[in-house]
Amino acid sequence: MRIIALEEHFAIPAMVARIDPVLIAQRGFPVGETTPQFMHVQEALAELGTARLADMDASGITLQVLSVSGPGADLLPASEGVAFARDYNDVLAVTVARHPERFAGFAHLPMTNPVEATKELERAVERLGFQGALINGTTEGRFLDDPRFAPILAAAEALAVPIYLHPGLPPAPIREAYYRGIPEEAGFLLGGPGWGWHAETALHVLRLVLSGTLDRHPRLQLIIGHLGEGLPAMLARCDQVFAHFTARNLQRKVSEAILAQVHLTTSGFFSLAPFLAALLTFGAERLMFSVDYPYSGNEAERKFLDLLPVAPADREHIAHGNADRLLRLSHRRDYAPRIAQAAKRKSRHPLLRATTRRGLARAYARWAASRRAGGESDDHGGFVRRGGGGAGLGAAAWLCRLFRHPASPFPRPVDGNARRCRGADQH
Questions:
Q1: 254 Cβ partners below 8 Å, 6+ apart?
Q2: pTM summary value
Q3: Which of 75, 133, 299, 346 is 20 to 30 Å from 379 by CA-CA measure?
Q4: Known catalytic residues?
Q5: Percent composition of the chain: helix, strand, coil (DSSP 3-state, to 5)
Q6: More confident of the two residues 23 and 351
Q7: Is 269 exposed, middle or buried (0-12, 13-18, 19+ CB in 10 A)?
Q8: Taking a C-beta distance cutoff of 8 angstroms, is the pair 359, 100 a contact?
Q9: Residue 417: Cβ within 10 Å count
Q10: Bridge-partner residues for 224, per DSSP?
């Protein structure tokens, strides 16, 4: 059985180092923590190779959809956040290209600049092959129902990709009002994974309904984790309380909007009661497997999946079928050849130079092997896919772009091949 995990995280220390530690502390992230558990998580976040794949293999997880965790573009001024998000997405694109059968990606967006965030979502989906975007909580204290974010939602609709609403750290005024006055560690956990994250994400979804945002974007699909952030237990109550308001102001009841446009994952939850509430409320067709790696372990979540009291067909839906359909993972285009184009920008960033040199050749080798297995051309002769015309990039396009990359481990093409390279790039 294929198993796809959707809320699986990574972080690049050199990227985080580009953010002023003062800004990180002001946002509420722990600074200077060195406990063994914290350091283990940080090491696992940064590891995108052998150790992560071995951990996946040990629990039978086929594919992780990766997303950025920790300090990100929203902490930076709008002008700086755009380049930061692009660089992070380019790192992720190279990682996916190395192991396209094991990794996919959710885009990291510069949310403080919604216009550029919209463009980056389009680039990440259309050029890098990502499956959507993951957004962490509020941006400068604003939820996605704020009109400034409408272009991002419209772009997700047009691209037919979901937005994963992930919890974020509470803004400073909320931390002060709700979570101060108790031991510091308890306050941080209460405002985060112990309660506050889940309450805020549920609130985020309800605001999108009650503001009319989901009515204005009826094809938008959202994903939330942690078996629905408490919403399955509250939908009937919301319908009752908001009945008169929704009848006068909205096109649907609260539950109707949510059940039509929100999907749930199991991330970080391993107990039966919330699962049953989610199953009874949303149905198996809107539940998807996730681990919340490395904050939760692959082994525990896999055991939970195996023990779920559901029919075999529903277990398949939860394990991979629903994710395949929503993220179109079973129809993924071959974006490995396109990563060379993104990688042209890598030579400007020292942390990525080694990644580019070591990774692109291996990525092409894997891609070419998959093309051979499918009966498609990899003879470096300038052909596009057989039977596909100009539908996709052939091996020559990959190689020609790779040859011209300044960090390429291969020799540049001789003059006689220049025209062929230009022609291949046009596809």
A1: 206, 209, 210, 235, 238, 239, 242, 246
A2: 0.79
A3: 346
A4: 292
A5: 55, 10, 35
A6: 23
A7: buried
A8: no
A9: 17
A10: 165, 264
